[in-house]
Write a structure and sequence with these properties.
The complex is a heterodimer.
Chain A: H1 2-6, H2 8-40, H3 71-105, H4 109-124, H5 127-139, E1 148-150, E2 154-157, E3 160-163, E4 165-166, H6 170-188, H7 198-215, E5 225-226, E6 229-231, E7 234-236, E8 239-241, H8 243-269, H9 273-281, H10 286-316, H11 328-339, H12 342-371
Antiparallel strand pairs in A: 1-2, 2-3, 3-8, 4-5, 6-7
Chain B: H1 2-25, H2 28-36, E1 39-42, E2 53-54, E3 60-61, H3 63-76, E4 82-85, H4 92-98, E5 104-109, H5 112-117, E6 120-122, E7 127-136, E8 151-155, H6 159-170, E9 176-180, H7 183-192, E10 197-201, H8 202-210, E11 218-235, H9 239-257, H10 265-270, H11 275-280, H12 297-305, H13 308-315
Parallel strand pairs in B: 1-4, 8-9, 8-10
Antiparallel strand pairs in B: 2-3, 5-11, 6-11, 7-10, 7-11
The chains are: A alpha+beta, B alpha/beta.
């Protein structure tokens, strides 16, 4: 018996087991105490409210929700809104960040100055202020009746940017997206000698698919393009980019780009100079050196901090609540107020963000392990 | 050993005695308030003009704040014992459940969900809130249907969101909703022209209009879209506290009905014109002891904050900058919906 206690292995395992048990007990106790207290106060608990209708509208959503939708549908719409603005932010911020990084490492001193100034300005101002700033600018534009118009088909006012759009249904758009992916995979199988044909063929196929979808499956009296038109107090037809959405997207993108730019710059600068010189010794052009040596190596170096930044930006979408953009946080906040189910909704809020952000982290890790230098590093 | 046991027994009995005597004194939240000698009451995170706002001297002002002060005076004898806790619309229910505040006096509409599922209890309505729509004057709208397709801004998470959606659906009017979490942002969006109209509580709209860079730019449209009775909220099961609140409101209304003001209350107490007034002001005992208060609590309340009409006029009515008409919040004999309970 004493031997067992003096065994270091046993002691270590025992400590670990006890620690895990204590944590699990603590969590269980918290949940039980919380539930009893809530029940004592006479508050209805559980997720039954998710099937009740909300009774309030959502100002912007990708799915069709209204006062008669259930809490489940409205919360899902909120999550989609968060993901829409979040993923668009990631895309544009990465693109802009790449430009900034290239400017900052270029030998042109004017480019360097512009890049550095940008980073210092946008990195050092809190993101919520930037979002407020862009929202104030967008809402102080003229009203819809005095809107700036571009050849009477596109309009820009404090109600947002109204653009003409092809008359495609949601189903059409889905078919188109699936079709594009299929075209991509189909063309990949073309023999390697004819790779030059891939891109033009892909474009032709995509355009053809688009035209077919546009012309077919449409009521006879619906025009091919839906053009925004002022009717009463609003524009009807076309698509609109609302100021809340635009301000959040612009603010987050410009802010995020300054960080991403620095991460990319760090990655590019981490590439060993000798490897680049080796490239030019082999007679590679500057483009080839960048494409085949510098960017692949830099990409590996910056992936871990880039995934951090992506996850941060996704969480940053919650500032949308301050300017009336109905993101997941704003929808949950309103739901708490309307249904009173605080604990359940907060759990859903955290769960939603964990799912989205974990997926980003997972995808980035997958990319990282695929790109990792095999064998030695 | 025996000695030890004896000691233990004494300690245990002492602890038990302590617990029971504390229980006897401490009857729910009313006991807590008396023991703490202050009433924790709702303010606002920012300003809800006319109801809970911070003035230039940094003091809380407004109709709901005066109600808090009246309640503090009734229980603790002084309006300064009302401690105003800034709290958002969304936080008010969790806050009362966790005991951060004793009472919600924050234009809180009496809805079935809140009453039945949140473990709360409402007082009789102390304020009747009509909902209106206020639109930009340059749109020339005379009724809500003239605003077809417009952008309607509201405060997120309030009953207004639902009330407006109901009204618009019933009347077949299409509109674009836009909800803001904070009143300041809602106002900024309205003044900037992002919204064609805002829907809300009459008092809120009139204070929003008064604060506009140019008040004439905005017009309150006559259609009442909904009427909401506002109650004072306590935790479920605080019946004694709720009694005090209901009778405090009745005292304010009775005072107005009988023409008792903060100026003439001493005179009235000296020469009560009726038996009801006599009872109300504590000349004949009963009004206090039955509620667990001093017999002169109503007198103190009227003396310090005035009657219902005085509070109304001072905070949102004719003597304030909001000039909100009494309307439905008048006494029954002046065409309103308010009436006192019977003080016998």
């Amino acid at each position: 018996m004493t031997k067992l206690f003096t065994s270091q292995k046993f002691r270590r395992t025992a400590v670990q087991v006890l620690f895990v048990a204590a944590v699990v007990l603590f969590i269980l106790a918290t949940i039980i105490v919380g539930r009893t207290n809530i029940a004592d106060q006479g508050i209805a608990t559980g997720f039954g409210f998710l099937n009740q209708t909300t009774g309030w509208p959502v100002s912007f959503s990708l799915t069709d929700v209204g006062p008669r939708s259930t809490y489940t549908e409205v919360l899902f719409a909120g999550l989609l809104n968060t993901m829409l603005v979040g993923f668009m932010t990631l895309f544009f911020a990465t693109l802009l960040g790449l430009f900034l990084a290239l400017m900052r490492i270029s030998s042109n001193s004017l480019m360097k100055l512009v890049g550095t100034t940008y980073v210092e300005v946008f990195r050092n101002v809190p993101v919520i202020l930037q979002v407020f700033f862009w929202y104030a600018i967008l809402t102080h534009l003229p009203g819809p009746r005095q809107a700036y118009s571009l050849a009477d088909i596109a309009f820009f006012s404090n109600r947002g940017l109204m653009l003409p759009a092809p008359s495609l249904s949601g189903l059409d758009i889905l078919i188109f997206l699936v079709g594009c992916v299929a075209i991509g995979f189909g063309l990949k199988s073309i023999k390697s000698k004819k790779t030059g044909l891939r891109l033009p063929l892909a474009i032709i196929a995509a355009v053809a698919l688009f035209v077919i979808l546009l012309v077919t499956g449409r009521d006879a009296d619906v025009p091919l393009w839906s053009v925004p038109e002022l009717k009463g107090l609003r524009f009807v037809g076309g698509v609109s980019l609302k100021p809340e959405f635009s301000a959040l997207l612009i603010g987050l993108t410009l802010f995020g780009a300054s960080y991403i730019g620095e991460i990319i710059r760090g990655g590019l600068m981490s590439v060993d100079k000798g490897k680049l010189e080796a490239g030019s010794a082999l007679g590679m052009s500057a483009f080839q050196i960048n494409r085949y040596i510098r960017i692949p190596l830099a990409f590996r170096a910056m992936l871990p901090s880039l995934s951090n930044q992506y996850i941060w930006l996704m969480k940053g979408t919650t500032v949308g609540i301050a300017i009336g953009y109905p993101d997941y946080f704003a929808i949950v906040s309103t739901s708490i107020n309307q249904s009173g189910q605080t604990m359940e909704l907060l759990a859903l809020l955290m769960g939603g963000f964990i799912v989205v952000n974990y997926s980003i982290g997972f995808a980035m890790n997958l990319l990282n392990s695929r790109l990792k230098l095999k064998g030695r590093s | 050993m025996l000695n030890k046991l004896m000691k233990l027994a004494t300690a245990a009995s002492l602890a038990f005695a302590g617990a029971t005597s504390a229980q006897a004194q401490d009857e729910g939240v009313l006991g807590e308030i008396k023991a703490r000698d202050s009433l924790l009451c709702t303010g606002h995170n920012g300003s809800y003009l006319g109801f809970a706002e911070v003035d230039a001297q940094g003091e809380w002002q407004g109709f709901d704040i005066e109600m808090c002060r009246a309640l503090a005076t009734a229980i603790l004898g002084s309006p300064d014992k009302a401690q105003i806790i800034p709290i958002s619309w969304a936080q008010r229910f969790p806050a009362i459940q966790s005991g951060d505040i004793d009472v919600i006096i924050k234009v809180t509409g009496w809805t079935m969900t809140r009453d039945t599922e949140l473990g709360l209890q409402y007082s009789r309505p102390y304020f009747i809130g009509p909902f209106y729509v206020m639109s930009r004057s340059d749109l020339g709208a005379e009724s809500i249907s003239d605003l077809e397709g417009g952008v309607f801004c509201v405060n997120a998470g309030t009953t207004v969101e639902r009330v407006l959606a109901d009204y618009m659906e019933t009347n077949g009017i299409e509109y674009q909703p836009l909800a803001f979490e904070k009143g300041e942002e809602l106002r900024a969006a309205l003044y900037a022209g992002r919204c064609d109209a805002i829907a809300g509580f009459g008092p809120f709209l009139s204070s929003t209009r008064v604060n506009a860079p140019n008040p004439d730019d905005f017009t309150i449209i006559g259609d009442v879209i909904k009427l909401e009775p506002e109650g004072i909220v306590v935790r479920q099961g605080e019946d004694d506290f709720l009694d005090v609140i209901n009778w405090m409101v009745t005292a304010l209304l009775l005072a107005e009905e009988n023409g008792i003001t903060s100026e003439n209350v001493d005179e009235m107490k000296a020469n009560p014109p009726s038996a009801t007034v006599e009872r109300l002001l504590g000349v004949t005992p009963g009004v206090g002891t039955r509620l667990g208060l001093q017999d002169d609590w109503a007198y103190n309340v009227i003396k310090t904050v005035g009657n219902y009409g005085q509070i109304y006029d001072r905070t949102v009515g004719d003597d304030s900058r909001y000039k909100l008409p009494r309307g439905l919040n008048n006494l029954w004999n002046n065409g309103g919906l308010l009436y006192p309970l019977v003080l016998d």
